[in-house]
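Minutes, project check-in

Agenda point 3 was the complex the collaborators sent over. CS summarized: two entities, 612 residues total, and the question is how they sit relative to each other. Sequences were read into the notes so everyone works from the same version.
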Amino acid sequence: MNKARRNPVNVFAAHAVLIVYTLIALFPVFVIIVNSFKTRKAIFREPLALPGSDSFSMIGYQTVMKQGDFVLYFQNSMIVTVASLFFILLFGAMAAFALSEYRFRGNTLMGLYLALGIMIPIRIGTVAILELMVQTGLVNTLLALILVYTAQGLPLAVFILSEFMRQVSDDLKNAGRIDGLSEYTIFFRLVLPLVRPAMATVAVFNMIPIWNDLWFPLILAPSEGTKTLTLGSQVFIGQFVTDWNAVLSALSLAILPVLVLYVIFSRQLIRGITSGAVK
Amino acid sequence: MTALSLTNLNKSFGPVKVLKDIDLTVEDGEFVVFVGPSGCGKSTLLRVIAGLEDATSGDIEIGGSNVNTTPPAKRGIAMVFQSYALYPHLNVRDNMALALKQEGQTKAEIEKRVAEASRMLSLEPYLDRRPSELSGGQRQRVAIGRAVVREPKLFLFDEPLSNLDAALRMNTRLEIAKLHRQLAASMIYVTHDQTEAMTLADRIVVLRDGRVEQVGTPMELYNNPANRFVAEFLGAPSMNFVPSEKLGGPAGEDVGIRPEHVQIVETAGRLSGTVIHVEQLGGDTNVIVDIGSEAPFTVRLFGQYAVEPGTEVHLGFEDAKTYRFGSDGTRLG
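CS then shared the predicted structure for the full assembly.
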């Protein structure tokens, strides 16, 4: 920022607002992580206190590790999220490329059709999806979840990516054509690297709802071998007794991978923005 | 042999006709410039020749063979784009080598051609740099180099100098002219800048609204324009038009006079008016005079003259150096 235009009061106010917002946003996460390291009694006695020498306990994590196959749940969530993101980005980008690059009959109509999914929540079709999965024998497989999440993520991906792909220079694509590159090479080598920031945005938008989803894992893949982390954590929440230590520990563990993925994608996001800013 | 021949070429986007009945031949080794105002279809014509757009009807022959259905890469052409269109993820060497790799040339051949082209365009120090590390002029040279290494039957340039600043534009223009002499290759060059057209072309094709208005050498077009549009488009400052009646001629006609053919005279001349602006360019002086017709009248004087805005001047010119145009823009004499 220009030094002459920097007003200490404004700077202070802006920082104060941002810091307050950060505290509010991080507070639940803080409570979860802090309490996951405490004994059950300590959690209810002083929920906001940091774990001390008498209240510190790893009992929650021990329960989580013993009860059920938590590593497997983790793996399932990871597979479902990463595979869904991969397919959303691949198919979304390909559809977006076709819509923005080629003139064909019904192009606009197709674009609208593909974007329609943004307005209609996929959960409305749960019963039909379940019937379909039963008939195709996909119930209790991770593939069922991956397919549903891919379908859920595609409309927004196509919508966002086709806007960005329109901005990629026509000359560049034409230069590739004249040099004899195939349409696939043009797409993968020339266009995709240039829309990387948009891809990262789409990935971040889709990743968190998929990772946190309870609905479809519960309905389509509730078997022991295909449980996701969110579903797996539910065993600690009972109708009469809830093992808070275990729930909080499970949640703390569940934050980690999604945080790592987010950091990876958001770095792409920032790199994309700054690389375009300086000509 | 003809490098390119277009027969009855038409192109429409939906109901809009962009190119109308274009017939044109480009001889081997010729430098042809397509020139016209924006939206006249010159870039579309180039893209149709390149194969990036399909013609709606008509025939395109490059080097004697019909290429109507040949994909761009197999037409034996190379194209230089206005926005350079370099591959951002490749260094200069690989940018130039990519098309050759796609053609399946041997490594030794690729190396030889890239070395030759980079020597010709003095790109040797930059071969390992990425496009983002180059200046605008260097980028455009790489883009030209990428075309040169392919040794095409026909070079296509799509406004290659528009993104460069004035000094660089002049240098690169000279470089392209030099390149044309060295390679003796057939080239088609699209521009809206009449200076580029006049200085580079063996032949100029003036386009308007998707139609060819006139084809000829720069001097033919300058000295003998077929119609008012061509007369007005070529030459800077552009030609003055005065209603015939003002000079004692028949109504409904216009007389065109080039600014350099007019003198400021002492005694009452054929026309007179008030100076409204003076442009001192050092080498010559443009005096803009209000003679009472719609458009201001420009007089180009060679050398430096001190003329004050607001002074009354008399203008003289020879009838032999005027052009007569009908109300529909056709040339009468």
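Noted in discussion: Residues 244-277 of chain A form the longest helix (34 residues).
Follow-up: revisit at the next meeting once the mutant set is ready.
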